[in-house]
Every structure is written in C-alpha cells, then in structure tokens.
C-alpha cells in the first residue's frame, strides 16, 4: 500500500476532517525496514506512531538472560505504539520486521495535535487500547492454560483482528512461512509445523508452501 492507501483504509484517518487529513499526510514519513531488522528497539524514546504499509512485524521483549517472548504480530494496515506515546515514555518492547516492510511514521507532535483537536481520533484510541488490553489478556490465558496448537491458533487469528489488524475480511489467506508462524507464536518452526497440521486436520486451515489459508475464522478464534 502507498501511504495514501494506508490512510484510506485506516478508520481513524477516515474520521478526520479534510484539513486534518491533509496535515497528517503532509507530516507522515515512510521507512523501509529489511527482513530481520529492528523497526524500533526497547528503550528508544517513543517519537512516532507506527503504521504498517507493507510487510509484517512482530512485537516482542527479552529478559536479561536472553529469553524472548512474542507479544503480537501486526500485518499491513495495522498501527502500533500509541501506549508509549500517550505515556510519553521509552518503548518497553522491540518491533522487528519479519519480512521486508514499509513503515509509516507519524511524528509524536502530530499524534498529540490530533488528540487535542479530534474527538473521533480519541474515540479510536480508546477502542484501540481496549482491544489491545483484551488481546493481551487472551495471550496470558493461552500461555497458561492452552497447548501449542492454541497458541498458534491465537497468533493467526490475531492477524485478522477487526480493529487492530483491519485486513480485507474477504481475504482469509496469509502469506506466511512456517518459520514466521513460529516467530509469531513464540515457538520453533518444527513445533509450528506440527501445530499447523493439527489445525489443518481439524478443518480450520489449509497449509501450503509460503501460505496459510483460513477455512473457518470464527472456529480458529474459538480454538
């Protein structure tokens, strides 16, 4: 997507006045981030709101011993980083490109200007934060109560979240490798492959080289 196309499919941008949209577009900047590179690092000052114009990123954190935990994945069309901007703090997580990606960066000053001038933007942020809270509560539940298959199902279903990841609802195919699925679920490629086969046998997915086709999205969400 171009930056114009990203704004055209972003609910918060659609709700702005023409003058507000024009100023946002004028200030929006794009970064190309190659596969495996950091979009942003834990400890960096939060100076931009990030939109994914192309590609796929994961949000993760690491302990001092090197143990890593994936928090979520964000495909093209999603936005992230609003929490750190609202709290005016350094980032508490890393954002890494799982494939070559293009990132839209809205400067913090424009983000805060929209807070001050747009009621619809503030409503969007409230909904976004509420949905993200629900997502992370579900993540904790899956980590503590469910097996590997449940974690993979949650990681895939999250990429179709209607608020956080507004993908085309008619397109339920994901161009994902088994390694990328493993990275999103926080498991090895081999365990991701085994979990995908279980979900495929249950009639929820069809897996082929480099792609996962979701056959029953609601059942995947409930798994």
How would you describe this structure to a colleague?
There is one protein chain. The chain has 223 residues and is α+β, with helices and mostly antiparallel strands. It is 45% helix and 24% strand. Strands 1-8-3-6 form a 4-stranded antiparallel beta sheet. Helix 7 crosses helix 8 and helix 8 crosses helix 9. The longest helix has 27 residues. The protein is globular. The chain starts with a helix and ends with a helix.
**Mean pLDDT across every amino acid position:** 86
Low-confidence stretches: none
Strand content: 15-25%
CATH superfamily of the largest domain: Jelly Rolls
Give the topology.
Elements: H1 3-8, H2 11-14, H3 18-27, E1 29-33, E2 38-40, E3 48-54, E4 56-62, E5 68-75, E6 79-80, H4 82-87, E7 94-97, E8 101-107, H5 108-117, H6 119-145, H7 148-158, E9 173-174, H8 178-185, H9 189-201, E10 205-208, E11 211-214, H10 217-222
Antiparallel strand pairs: 1-8, 2-7, 3-6, 3-8, 4-5, 4-7, 9-11, 10-11
GO molecular function, one term: DNA binding
Protein name: Crp/Fnr family transcriptional regulator
Organism: Cupriavidus lacunae
Summary of the model, kept short:
With 223 residues, the chain is α+β, with helices and mostly antiparallel strands. The chain has helices at 3-8, 11-14, 18-27, 82-87, 108-117, 119-145, 148-158, 178-185, 189-201, 217-222; strands spanning 29-33, 38-40, 48-54, 56-62, 68-75, 79-80, 94-97, 101-107, 173-174, 205-208, 211-214. It has 2 domains: 3-117, Jelly Rolls (Sandwich), CATH 2.60.120; 146-222, Winged helix-like DNA-binding domain superfamily/Winged helix DNA-binding domain (Arc Repressor Mutant, subunit A, Orthogonal Bundle).
């Amino acid at each position: 997507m171009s930056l114009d196309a990203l704004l055209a499919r972003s609910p918060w941008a659609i709700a702005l006045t023409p003058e507000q949209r024009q100023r946002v577009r004028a200030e929006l900047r794009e970064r190309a981030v190659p596969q495996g590179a950091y979009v942003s690092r834990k400890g960096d000052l939060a100076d931009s709101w990030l939109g994914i114009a192309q590609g796929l990123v994961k949000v993760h954190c690491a302990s001092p011993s090197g143990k890593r935990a994936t928090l979520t994945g964000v495909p093209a069309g999603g936005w992230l980083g609003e929490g750190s901007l609202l709290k005016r703090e350094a980032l508490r997580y890393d954002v890494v490109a799982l494939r070559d990606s293009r990132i839209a960066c809205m400067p913090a000053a424009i983000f805060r200007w929209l807070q001050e001038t747009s009621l619809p933007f503030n409503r969007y942020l409230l909904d976004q934060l509420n949905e993200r809270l629900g997502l992370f509560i579900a993540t904790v539940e899956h980590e503590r109560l469910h097996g590997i298959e449940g974690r993979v199902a949650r990681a895939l279903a999250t990429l179709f979240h209607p608020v956080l990841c507004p993908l085309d609802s008619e397109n339920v195919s994901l161009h994902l490798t088994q390694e990328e699925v493993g990275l999103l679920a926080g498991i090895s490629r081999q365990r991701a492959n085994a979990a995908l086969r279980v979900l495929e046998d249950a009639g929820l997915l069809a897996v082929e080289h480099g792609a996962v086709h979701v056959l029953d999205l609601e059942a995947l969400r409930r798994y």
